[in-house]
Amino acid sequence: MPCETIQTSQVDRGVRKGLTPGFIESVPETIHRESVKYQIKVMKDE
């Protein structure tokens, strides 16, 4: 899966910069969660 490869290489790059893999993996999850919250809010407002 290309998606997995891209994410893995991003994690490797981040680790070289001193970030932990757990932190790097949590970033897209957090962005997704916030996006879902925003979409729900917009739907309620309409």
Give the helix/strand layout.
Elements lengths: L1 H15 L4 H25 L1
What does this structure look like?
By secondary structure, the protein is mainly alpha-helical. The protein has one domain (2-45). 87% of the residues lie in helices and 0% in strands. The chain is built from two helices and no strands. It has helices at 2-16, 21-45. The longest helix has 25 residues, at 21-45. The radius of gyration is 15 Å and the shape is elongated. It starts with a helix and ends with a helix. The model has no long low-confidence stretch (mean pLDDT 76).
Class by alpha and beta content: mainly alpha
Kindly state the percentage of residues in helix: over 70%
Tell me the span between the first and last alpha carbons.
38 Å
Determine the number of helices (DSSP H or I, runs of at least 4 residues): 2
Task: Label the overall shape.
Answer: elongated
**From the alpha-carbon coordinates, what is the Rg to the nearest angstrom?**
15 Å
- Major sheet attributes: none
Mean pLDDT, as a whole number?
A: 76
How many DSSP-defined strands? Answer: 0
| Low-pLDDT runs | none
Taken as a percent bin, the fraction of beta residues is: under 5%
Q: How do the SSEs run, as a string of H and E?
A: HH
The domain tally reads 1
Short description:
The chain is mostly helical and about 45 residues long. It contains 2 helices and no strands.
